[in-house]
Amino acid sequence: MVLPAGPDDLGGNSNAMDIDRRLRLLSILHHVYGVFICLMGTALLALVFMGVLLGSDMIAAEADNVLPQWLGSGMQVIGWVLFLLIEVVGLLNIISGSGLARRRGRTFSIAVAILDCFNVPLGLLLGAFTLLTLLDRRTEAAYGMGAPGD
Predict the structure, then answer these.
(1) Between the CA of residue 59 and those of 11, 29, 45, 77, 96, what are the distances in Å?
(2) Which domain range does residue 125 map to?
């Protein structure tokens, strides 16, 4: 009995099936990662809460030294800015996952994958897998390159 050497020897549409499975998996991973990032972003609201506490009269009354007013306000600003940035990254991943499921927005998903690569280690793994899949010629065919909406 001779086994096929690879997916091309199976005959039929095995390459398209492989790309479809990869895109479906990427869609799920982008959704899960986006929700995970959004949940982790809520932890940054602790910075905002600490900033509110540092700026409150209760802390000022109990402290021997008077804390500078900018300390509490600065922590609040930093907390809100970081919270918003992380939430945007999470939402971009969720939107990318939806696009991957519908075979839309390939360029957008590539941009999100590059952005994910800066978040080591999970984002780097997801970004690299996404880039390897979306930059494949077979994926271009699955997206119907040249169609509007890419």
Answers:
(1) 73, 44, 19, 19, 44
(2) 22-139
Per-residue pLDDT, 13: 52
Tell me the per-residue pLDDT of 80-125, one tens digit each, with 9 for 90 and over: 999 999 999 999 999 999 999 999 999 999 999 999 999 989 999 9
DSSP helix/strand/coil, 121: coil
57 part of a folded domain: yes
- Residue 10 in domain: no
Global confidence as pTM: 0.76
Domain count, the chain: 1
Average pLDDT estimate for 118-137: 93
82 found inside a domain: yes
- Cα dihedral value 87, 92, 94, 96, nearest 10: -170
CB 107 within 8 A of CB 145: no
